Amino acid sequence: FGQERREEGLLIVENVFLRVILQIICRVNQACDMIYR
After folding, report:
1. Which domain of life does the UniProt lineage start with (predicted)?
2. Cα angle 19, 34, 17; round to 5
């Protein structure tokens, strides 16, 4: 049970990390769009 829970926890952490990265990329892209426009 311990190993399965650890794997699930890692997947959750990875999903959150990816979401944060996507949010940062979106913000940077919006900033670039505003600057270049």
Report:
1. Eukaryota
2. 10
pLDDT recorded at residue 25: 93
Q: List the structure tokens of 7.
A: 């794997």
- What lies within 8 Å, CB to CB, of 24 at 6+ separation is none
Read off the pLDDT of residues 8-30 as tens digits, 9 standing for 90 and up: 888 888 999 999 999 999 899 89
Q: HSE, CB side, 13 Å, CA atoms: give it for residue 36.
A: 6
pTM above 0.85, yes or no: no
